[in-house]
Design goal:
single chain; alpha/beta; Aldehyde Dehydrogenase, Chain A, domain 1; Aldehyde Dehydrogenase, Chain A, domain 2; 2 domains; 5-stranded parallel beta sheet; binds nicotinamide-adenine-dinucleotide
C-alpha cells in the first residue's frame, strides 16, 4: 500500500509516433483538414463569458500566410479591468475550495489533453505556431499533460511538509493562495508553457488574468476550452487579447496584483520588473515575480568527444522548431582536431532536412513565427555574409513569399565574441567557434563570460577530467547543464527547467519550487492545554 501520496502518482505522457499507418496519424490529418476548412472566431473569456469586441485581428499559419485560420477579438484597457474584477470575484470561492477538488479539475484537464483533445491541441499548434507533428506532440500534448499531472503531485508534497508538534500542541503550516490575482504572461513558442503559466498558480488556489502572445492565440483558445471542459469555475482563469504594454499599464498598477508568472524575452521581463519596482508602494502585498527569459545556449566539445554525437546534438539541438526554443543551441565551441569531421557530418545531416509546411509530415523544418522574427533573423544572416571574419558553413537563404522560411544556417566565426555568439537570435542560426585543443581551459572561461544568459549548455567528451572541469567552471553558465546530450528537450519530472543570470529567476517550471511561489504559508499553533497560571517555576522561592 502506498502511504505517502494522496493523489494519483504522476507519469509522463507517452509520445506517440505518428508513423504511417497509425491511428493517431489518420486522426490528426482529419483534424488538420477540418481546422483548415473553417475560419475560427476567437473571443476573450472573462468571468466565463465570451467577449467579442468586433475589433478583430487575423490569424494565419506562419508557413502559409495566404491562408486565413481565423481571427481573434482584441480588447483594450476596459477588458483588463473586467478580467481583474472577474478574477477577484471568483477568488472568494476558489481560494477556499478543498485542494483535492482543485486537483481533480486539473487531472481531468490532463486526461482531456492526452485523450479527446490531443489532436485538436496538436493541430492548433502545428497550424498556428508552425510546429512539426513531433514538436507539437512533445509540447502541446505531452508536456502540457505532464505539467498538470506532476504539479498535482508536487502540490500534495508541499502540503505534506509540516512542522514538529510537541505534546499538547499542534503546529501546522497552511499554504494560503496569494491575496489578490496572478498575471500570467506567456510566449509564443510552447503551448505547454503558456498553459502552465496560467494553470500552476490556479492549481494552488489562485485566480489568474492570462495574456498570451498574439501568435499563440489559436492554440490558447483550445487550452481554455480544455480548462472549461474540465470544470474550472468561471473567472479562475480569464484570457485577454490586449497589447502587452496596454495590459501592463492596468495590471501593474493594480493594488491586488499578487504575482506575475512570465515566460518570454529578457527585455520585456526587465521592463515589467522595473514597473513593479516603481509601483511598489501601490500593492497590498509584495508581488511574487517569476520570470523565465532568454538564453544563449551552448554546445562545447572536448577533443575526446565523439564527432557524430556532437554533430547530431548540433543538428537537433539548434534547429528543431527552427531554433525557437529558449534552450536551443545557438553557439558551439569545437576543437580544431574534430572540426573537419563534425563539419562534414553536421552539414550532411542539415542538408537532409526537408523544409516546408508541417501538414506534410516529412518536413523537419517549417517557418519562423512571424515577419518581425523573419526580418530580424535575416538581418543577422546578411550581416554575417558581409563580415570577412564569418563564413557561412551551410544555409543562409530565406524566402517569405509563401511563409517565413529561413534555411537552417551554420556560421563559422573567427571571432569568439562575434554578435551571434553573444545575443539571443531565437531562430535557426548556430554559430561555431573553433578552438585549439590545448586551449580547453581558456575556452571554458570564455563561454562563461561571452553572454549575459545562463539557461542551458552541453558538454561532450569521454575524458572525465574535462567533464568535471566544465561542470565546475560553467557552474553558473547554465541552469540546465547536459553531459553528452543536446541542451534541449527537458522533461517535466526529470529535468526541472530554468536558468539564472539574464535567463530569469530560475524558479524551475515543472517542479515544487515553482509552486511554492504561488502560496504564502501561515503557521498555526494550537494549544490543547493552555497554561492557567502566569507563574514560572523558577520564580518560586526555595
Ligand atoms: P516576448 O517577450 O516577446 O513576449 C512574451 C509576452 O510578453 C507576450 O505575451 C507578449 O505579448 C508580452 N509583451 C511583449 N512586449 C511587452 C511589453 N512591452 N510589455 C508587456 N508585455 C509585453 O517573448 P516571445 O517572443 O513570445 O518568446 C520568446 C522569448 O521567450 C525568448 O526570449 C525565449 O528565450 C523566451 N523563452 C524562455 C523560456 C524559459 O523557460 N527560459 C521558455 C520559452 C521562451
Amino acid at each position: 500500500m502506498r502511504k505517502h501520496l494522496e493523489v494519483p502518482e504522476a507519469y509522463n505522457e507517452p509520445v506517440l509516433t505518428y508513423a504511417p499507418g497509425t491511428a493517431e496519424r489518420e486522426e490528426l490529418r482529419k483534424v488538420i483538414s477540418q481546422m483548415r476548412s473553417t475560419v475560427a472566431d476567437i473571443p476573450m473569456i472573462i468571468g466565463g463569458s465570451e467577449i467579442r469586441t468586433g475589433n478583430c485581428a487575423e490569424i494565419r499559419p506562419p508557413h502559409d500566410t495566404s491562408h486565413l485560420l481565423g481571427h481573434y477579438h482584441k480588447g483594450d484597457k476596459t477588458h483588463v479591468e473586467m478580467a481583474i474584477s472577474a478574477a477577484l470575484d471568483a477568488r472568494r470561492e476558489w481560494a477556499y475550495m478543498p485542494w483535492k477538488q482543485r486537483a481533480s479539475i486539473f487531472l481531468r484537464a490532463a486526461s482531456l489533453v492526452s485523450g479527446p483533445y490531443r489532436q485538436l491541441i496538436n493541430a492548433a499548434s502545428m497550424l498556428g505556431q508552425s510546429k512539426t507533428v513531433h514538436q507539437a506532440e512533445i509540447d502541446a500534448a505531452c508536456e502540457f499533460a505532464d505539467f498538470l499531472r506532476y504539479n498535482v503531485q508536487y502540490m500534495n508534497e508541499i502540503y505534506q511538509m509540516q512542522p514538529e508538534s510537541h505534546p499538547n500542541t499542534w503546529n501546522r503550516l497552511e499554504q494560503r493562495p496569494l491575496e489578490g490575482f496572478i498575471y500570467a504572461l506567456s510566449p509564443f513558442n510552447f503551448t505547454s508553457i503558456a498553459a502552465n503559466l496560467a494553470a500552476a498558480p490556479a492549481l494552488m488556489g489562485n485566480v489568474v488574468v492570462w495574456k498570451p502572445s498574439n501568435t499563440q492565440i489559436y492554440s490558447a483558445d483550445v487550452i481554455m476550452k480544455i480548462y472549461r471542459e474540465a470544470g474550472l469555475p468561471d473567472g479562475v482563469i480569464n484570457i485577454i487579447y490586449v497589447s502587452g504594454p496596454e495590459a501592463a499599464d492596468v495590471v501593474l498598477s493594480n493594488r491586488h496584483l499578487a504575482g506575475i508568472h512570465f515566460t518570454g524575452s529578457t527585455g520585456v521581463f526587465n521592463s515589467i520588473w522595473k514597473t513593479v519596482g516603481n509601483n511598489i508602494g501601490t500593492y497590498k502585498n509584495y508581488p511574487r515575480v517569476v520570470g523565465e527569459t532568454g538564453g544563449k545556449d551552448f554546445i562545447l566539445a572536448h577533443s575526446s568527444a565523439n564527432a557524430r554525437q556532437v554533430a547530431t546534438a548540433m543538428a537537433r539541438g539548434a534547429f528543431e522548431y527552427q531554433g525557437q526554443k529558449c534552450s536551443a543551441a545557438s553557439r558551439a565551441y569545437l576543437p580544431e582536431s574534430l572540426w573537419p569531421e563534425i563539419r562534414q557530418i553536421a552539414v550532411g545531416q542539415v542538408g537532409n532536412f526537408r523544409m516546408g509546411g508541417p501538414e506534410d509530415f516529412s518536413n523537419f523544418i517549417t517557418a519562423v513565427i512571424d515577419e518581425k522574427a523573419f526580418d530580424k533573423l535575416t538581418a543577422y544572416i546578411e550581416q554575417a555574409k558581409n563580415n570577412p571574419q564569418v563564413e557561412i558553413v551551410c544555409g543562409g537563404n530565406y524566402d517569405k513569399s509563401k511563409g517565413y522560411f529561413i534555411e537552417p544556417t551554420i556560421l563559422l566565426s573567427k571571432d569568439p565574441c562575434y554578435i551571434t555568439m553573444q545575443e539571443e537570435l531565437f531562430g535557426p542560426v548556430l554559430t561555431v567557434y573553433v578552438y585549439r585543443d590545448e586551449e580547453y581551459d581558456d575556452i571554458l572561461r570564455l563561454i562563461d563570460k561571452t553572454s549575459i544568459y545562463g539557461l542551458t549548455g552541453a558538454v561532450f567528451g569521454r575524458n572525465r577530467d574535462a567533464i568535471r572541469q566544465a561542470t565546475d567552471i560553467l557552474r553558473y553558465s547554465a541552469g540546465n547543464f547536459y553531459i553528452n546530450d543536446k541542451p534541449t528537450g527537458a522533461v517535466v519530472g526529470h529535468q526541472p527547467f530554468g536558468g539564472s543570470r539574464a535567463s530569469g529567476t530560475n524558479d524551475k517550471a515543472g517542479s515544487a519550487l515553482n509552486l511554492l511561489r504561488w502560496v504564502s504559508p501561515r503557521t498555526i499553533k494550537e494549544c490543547f492545554l493552555p497554561p492557567e497560571n502566569w507563574v514560572y517555576p523558577f520564580l518560586s522561592e526555595g
